[in-house]
Design brief:
One of its GO terms (molecular function) is serine-type endopeptidase activity. Belongs to the peptidase S8 family. Keywords: Cell wall, Hydrolase, Protease, Secreted, Serine protease, Signal. 13% of the residues lie in helices and 37% in strands. The chain is mainly β. The chain folds into seven domains: 74-170, Alpha-Beta Plaits (2-Layer Sandwich); 187-386 and 526-590, 3-Layer(aba) Sandwich (Rossmann fold), CATH 3.40.50.200; 392-522, 3-Layer(bba) Sandwich (Glucose Oxidase, domain 1); 643-772, Sandwich (Immunoglobulin-like); 774-886, Immunoglobulin-like; 1000-1135, Immunoglobulin-like (Sandwich); 1148-1228, Immunoglobulin-like (Sandwich), CATH 2.60.40.1080. The strands form 17 sheets. It has an eight-stranded mixed sheet, sandwiched between helices. It has a seven-stranded parallel sheet with strand order 8-9-7-11-12-13-22, sandwiched between helices. Helix 2 (97-103) packs parallel to helix 8, helix 6 (265-274) packs parallel to helix 11 and helix 7 packs parallel to helix 8.
Length: 1242
């Protein structure tokens, strides 16, 4: 499953922070051009393009009404106009062979196999007509169909082919290794398997012998001593061979989104299920990792490759092969980001169970939010597994006033020993170096708030300040299970909740406060990261069961052949599911050993495990919701002594039914979403598995009591099984009165055996009211929340996915902006299919183009929302809208001077620093931190000529610094990249600096220090450079009471004005000042030495002392940025006594037109004319000062030359000797005549 380090987002408008190591759903084949370009990049981005931008409100839960069957084939991959190749999964109509074989007793398997073969041949022949289609994988055992690759704009053509039932997207799956709990581990820490009762089964002779278990995962190190004897075979669907070994390390492959290139996940999972080690003999030939079923046979199917990523087509292929190979149990510790029960992988999982194979799937690591289950964790028939804690010692900080503060020890941290006098506590803010100034933390515990910098940096800074330990408290509700990143020399570092942290902070700030540390023994707490149900859209209870998933010790690969330390403690629901898979293997061995009529099918084994689970409670003693724990924590001791199985009869949703057996048995009472005034009855079957007389008292525990609340009543209070009686049934009736408040209600039905009190448990839940009725469409998601459609092949597109919860016909997905309203339609449902049935739909490679009143247009850069509009019901689902950002431009930034600063104490180290000036993401997400969306990297070459990347740190004010190596023996250069989370800025460096490079100085020098009012004075912008420069620029900030008359380029520096490109504009500066931005770039030649670049003339009608600041300056020699020094502030005193300010020079000043129009990209030269009092007309174009009101529409240079930039209307202003005139500007897009083919398509 995905990492558990995903942060929960604060509720607040556009407040975002980086999601570490999380990946969003998407097509596995999408953005292939992006991947190819990325592989050629010299710079590796350390940012994620997935920002979990807060939505406009909480998503409203719901469930689907009864679905109507549709004979029409369904396409869950919406039509695209892109010609890029994409992979999809095609489902054909006939039942898969293994499902038919198991479910259709007496029917001819040969006939059905022949029917499937003919269906495949017919489809394959017809599919050849689709342009560019390539067949990839063929399925027939538990999923009937193919995976195919074809242009995205050809997908709809598949629906017209014979035999097609549905087309599914090829989703991305993850099994990213979760954080290690740190340090070396030993066999004494392997306590989760004994805790669930496995040794009692071993003592009875059941260790999984003869049972085949399939692990569908990242592969396996089959040479591991604890696995070598168990491993029997498998297949690698990543490399398409019979060697499913884990992905090995590759030093040329850097981590991506915090995930390493190599994998270990499948080996760890395998050890938990079938490890054959002996914890009592850790040095023995089989190591010490011992699984739940240590004599079961292991088959491994590698479907997840480098970085732990894979796709639907390989996951389905792995399930197919596992069933075909005769496996009894499948473990799937993987998942996608979709909470949807109708995806292709869920179909395959359900069919595997129908074919007689038990399947355990991990629920996901996206807790603690509701509805965070990940597909295929919502599969109807599989056992979905959440994570709980095994027995362990929990650290607590104790004080008389605050009581016990429960804590987590961070990964890689040493433990803190108690101090008999207690530990002093001092609050140190966010734990930045500056936060320790004036705070005495020496010998104390530094109390630090989470946020802005890493846990590692907080711990390091605290140690540097002399702290004896660190407590980091959360900045959002809930606990933190944090990591320091890697092994190191740290002081003990713990985390606590926000509430406890704020209480401790108040005490620490009020007095010299002290606390003690200790531990408390705990077990059976729900892991904070464990994903919650219900499964959507049917509101089924999920997970079905929980199992230990915290600090689970098992086997991992060895890349050296030394297996003495090839063990690790990991956490996640990925670690919980294999406990259940191993338990299923023990049950299968036991019941296989009995006569055939006593063999249990997968549904009965699932119910046997859930019936006998132990209910778990939080620290207050309150039971967790059934949507968090299912039936409870697995307990094999109870299952061993069970004499009966209680199960509930359910019917598969119509969309998941094949031609056979739509009914199934399960271990929970899921009533879904119901309206007030409803009555629902469910049948419970009690199966006798001991052939004994048994009498059970039927008890109903229900959370609702009083008037106008639902009631759950059993048809009997007692039920009996007689010897020889196979089973009996009874019913429970849910009654929901009219007027029942909208809410979730839950409880459980208990069957308590008379005599020994053995209890069988059936959890129950219902969601009442329209508040729990899903919108027709929800879960809109983007593979990249931000993307950059600028055709640089980096994050140019995003994949858009959405859930349809019940059949709809006429709907649109509309893009809108909070400031500019609706922008256009991304997807129109009715124009693509007459009906959209429930499933997850994915639109690949969207490039930010929408249709607006029949015309296609590209969205401008900015923040947008995608909103479903349902025309069937005339409703706009604003509560389901999802945000995204379009950002095509690289961040604006500048380098601090003098560029590279070499450490005086150590000449092998240097620093490059600078300032981020702006970026679209910073503009549209006002509360975002710079470090979330802006990255800085410097590339340099070492003596061997190999590029090395140094990553910088961006502070909360946008200032960045990068520590770089300096090689004394080579004159290497440094490429500085400032990039954003949309991958802008990764291709072209902001600047290239050199060690011992040329220097430049630019400074302001007024011609006079004192001047009269209304008298012109000059400020020279002078330079001195050793470089052969070809361009220079500067920004001069001046008070608004000064009037800028003109800027003159020094003809001694630029003798030929036609050889230079000059730009200038005046913008508002802070505090009401003005800022002149001026640049000159030579078309040929260079300038060097010292001289005046330009002179700027001012005058003022108001006396006073005025400061003019040269704020920024830049000099380039070719593409190399020359470090600049000399920036300064000068003072000019203006005294009274000049000409009356109300009388500019006599005459008339005007432009040659009041209005100008030009095309985008076109230039037009205006003419400025001055008519003196004698009637003489002079062309003063080169002496006037011009400004553009909106340079994004039109720019104007120092000579009055206009350049159209983009479509729009604006103004320019020209000033000359106290006269000012304004002219209107219209910029239009050139007309392009449509092609003949476009004209014909009416």
């Amino acid at each position: 499953m995905k990492p558990i380090s995903r942060q929960q987002w604060l509720v607040g408008v556009l407040s975002v922070s980086l999601v570490l190591g999380a990946a969003s759903p998407g097509l596995a084949s999408a953005a292939s051009a992006d991947a190819q370009t990325a592989s050629k990049l010299k710079v590796q981005s350390r940012l994620s393009s997935n920002l979990n931008i807060p939505r406009s409100g909480e998503l409203t839960p719901s469930a689907a009404p009864l679905l109507k069957s549709s004979a029409s084939p369904q396409n869950f991959v919406p039509e695209s106009d892109s010609s890029s190749l994409t992979t999809v999964i095609v489902q054909l109509k006939n039942d898969p062979i293994k499902v038919f074989e198991k479910q259709s007793a007496g029917a001819s398997l040969a006939d059905h196999t022949s029917k499937v073969r003919i269906e495949h041949n017919t489809f394959k022949s017809a599919a050849q007509a689709l342009r560019g289609l390539t067949f990839k994988r063929e399925y027939s055992k538990v999923f009937n169909g193919y995976s195919v690759e074809l242009p995205a704009n050809q997908v709809d053509g598949l629906l017209k082919l014979p035999g097609v039932k549905a087309v599914f997207p090829n989703l991305t799956y993850h099994a990213t290794p979760v954080e290690s709990t740190g340090g070396e581990v030993g066999p004494s820490e392997d306590n989760s398997i004994p805790y669930i009762g496995a040794p009692k089964w071993w003592n009875e002779g059941y260790k999984g012998k003869g049972v085949k278990v399939a692990v569908i995962d990242t592969g396996v190190d089959y040479n591991h001593p604890s696995l070598k004897g168990a491993y029997k075979g498998g297949y690698d669907f990543v490399d398409n061979d019979k060697d499913p070994f884990e992905t090995k390390p590759d030093p040329t492959k850097p981590p991506v989104d915090g995930k390493p290139y190599d994998t270990e996940h499948g080996t760890h999972v395998s050890g938990t299920i079938v490890g054959r080690g002996n914890p009592n003999d850790p040095q023995g030939t089989q190591g010490w990792a011992r699984g739940v079923a240590p004599e079961a046979d292991l088959y491994v199917y590698r479907v997840l490759g480098p970085y732990g990523n894979g796709s639907t087509e390989n996951v389905v292929a792995g399930i197919e092969e596992a069933v075909a190979d005769g496996n009894d149990v499948i473990n799937l510790s993987l998942g996608s980001d979709f909470n949807n029960q109708y995806t292709a992988d869920s179909v395959a999982v359900d069919n595997a169970v129908k074919a007689g194979v038990e399947v355990a799937v991990s629920a996901g690591n996206e807790g603690p939010g509701d509805e965070t289950l990940g597909s295929p964790g919502g599969s109807q028939l599989a056992i979905s597994v959440g994570a709980s804690t095994p027995p362990g010692e929990t650290p607590i900080f104790k004080s008389a006033e605050l009581g016990d503060l429960y804590a987590y020890l961070t990964t890689y941290s040493p433990e803190l020993k108690d101090n008999k006098d207690g530990w002093g506590v001092a609050y140190a803010g966010l734990g930045k170096p500056a936060d320790f100034a004036g705070v005495d933390v020496k010998g104390k515990i530094a109390l630090i708030s989470r946020g802005e910098i890493s846990f590692h940096d907080k711990a390091v800074n605290a140690k540097a300040a002399g702290a004896a330990g660190v407590i980091i408290f959360n900045n959002v509700p809930g606990e933190i299970q944090a990591t320091l990143g890697s092994e190191g020399d740290y002081v003990p570092t713990y985390t606590i909740t926000k509430e406890d942290g704020l209480n401790l902070k108040a005490k620490a700030e009020a007095s010299d406060y002290k606390i003690h540390i200790g531990t408390v023994h705990e077990q059976d707490l729900l892991a904070d990261f464990s994903s919650r149900g219900p499964a959507l859209p049917d509101y089924s209870i999920k997970p079905d069961i929980t199992a230990p998933g915290v600090a689970i010790t098992s086997s991992i690969p060895s890349w050296t052949g030394d297996y003495s330390n090839a063990y690790e403690s990991l956490q996640g629901t990925s670690m919980a599911a294999p406990h259940v898979a191993g338990a299923a293997a023990l049950l299968i061995e036991r019941f296989k050993s009995e006569r055939k009529e006593k063999h249990l099918d997968p549904e009965q084994i699932k119910a046997l495990l859930t019936n006998n689970a132990v209910e778990i409670h939080d620290r207050s003693g309150t039971p967790y919701s059934v949507q968090l724990q299912g039936a409870g924590r697995i307990d094999l001791s109870n299952a061993l002594t069970a004499e009966a199985i209680a199960s509930v009869k359910e019917k598969l949703p119509i969309e998941l039914q094949g031609s056979t057996n739509s009914e199934y048995q399960t271990g929970s009472l899921s009533f879904g979403q119901q309206a007030g005034g409803s009555t629902v009855t469910k049948e419970i079957t009690l199966k006798n598995i001991a052939d004994t007389k048994q009498t059970y008292d039927v008890q109903v525990k229900w959370s609702a009591d009083g008037k106008n609340v639902p009631s759950l009543v059993s048809s009997t209070q007692q039920i009996t099984l007689q010897p020889g009686q196979k089973q009996t049934t009874f019913t429970v009736k849910l009654t929901i009165p009219k007027g029942t408040p909208e809410s979730k209600f839950e409880g459980q039905v208990l069957l308590v055996k008379q005599g020994d009190g053995h209890t069988l448990r059936l959890p129950a839940s219902v969601y009442v009211g329209d508040a729990y009725k899903l919108g027709e469409i929800n879960n809109i998601a983007f593979s990249n929340d931000i993307f950059s459609p600028n055709k640089d092949y980096l994050a140019d597109t995003t994949d858009v996915s959405f859930n349809v919860n019940y059949p709809i016909k006429d709907f649109d997905l509309v893009v809108n902006s909070d400031t500019e309203g609706d922008q256009g339609i991304l997807y129109s449902g009715l124009s693509h299919a007459p009906v959209h049935n429930p499933d997850t739909y994915t639109l690949p490679d969207w490039d930010a183009k929408v249709t607006d009143h029949g015309q296609e247009k590209s969205l401008k850069d900015g923040l947008y929302w995608l909103t479903p509009v349902i025309h069937d019901t005339n409703s706009r689902l604003d509560q389901e809208r999802a945000p995204f950002v379009v950002d095509r431009e690289a961040p604006k930034a500048e380098i601090d001077q003098p560029g590279l600063v070499i450490n005086e104490a150590d000449g092998t180290k240097g620093t490059i620093s600078g300032q981020v000036l702006g970026d679209t993401l910073l503009n549209v997400l006002p509360n975002v931190k710079y470090s979330d969306v802006i990255g800085v990297a410097v590339l340099t070459t070492d003596p061997s000529g190999t590029y090395t990347q140094a990553d910088g740190v961006v502070d909360d004010k946008g200032h960045f610094s990068v520590n770089v190596p300096v090689y004394p023996d080579i004159d290497n250069s440094y490429e500085v990249y400032v990039y954003d989370a949309a991958s802008n800025g990764l291709l072209t460096p902001l600047a290239t600096l050199k060690k011992n490079q040329e220097q430049a100085k630019i400074f302001a020098d007024p011609a006079t220090q004192e001047v009269k009012t209304n008298t012109e004075f000059q400020v020279g912008i002078k330079f001195a450079t050793t470089a052969k420069a070809n361009s220079a620029s500067f920004s001069l900030v001046y008070p608004k009471n000064l009037t800028l008359n003109a800027v003159k380029l020094n003809s001694a520096v630029v003798p030929d004005p036609q050889n230079a490109v000059v730009t200038q504009n005046i913008v508002d500066a802070p505090n009401g000042d003005k800022q002149l931005n001026y640049s000159v770039s030579l078309k040929s030649g260079t300038f060097t030495g010292s001289d005046q670049l330009a002179s700027v003339s001012f005058q003022s009608a108001t006396a006073g002392q005025y400061a003019l600041t040269l704020a920024t300056a830049s000099v380039k020699a070719g593409a190399v940025q020359v470090p600049v020094t000399g920036l300064n502030t000068v003072q000019v005193v203006v005294k009274s006594g000049g000409t009356d300010p109300g009388t500019p020079e006599p005459g008339v000043f005007n432009l040659d037109s009041d209005d100008y129009s030009l095309l985008v990209g076109e230039q037009f030269e205006t003419v400025a004319l001055f008519t003196d009092q004698n009637g003489k007309v002079t062309n003063v174009s080169s002496d006037a000062v011009y400004t553009s009101k909106n340079p994004k529409v039109v720019t104007v240079d120092k000579y009055g030359v206009l350049t159209g930039v983009s479509k729009g209307v604006t103004q320019i202003t020209a000033t000359y000797k106290g006269h000012t005139v304004t002219a209107g500007i219209l910029v239009v897009v050139p007309y392009v005549k449509p092609s003949s083919s476009s004209v014909s398509e009416q």
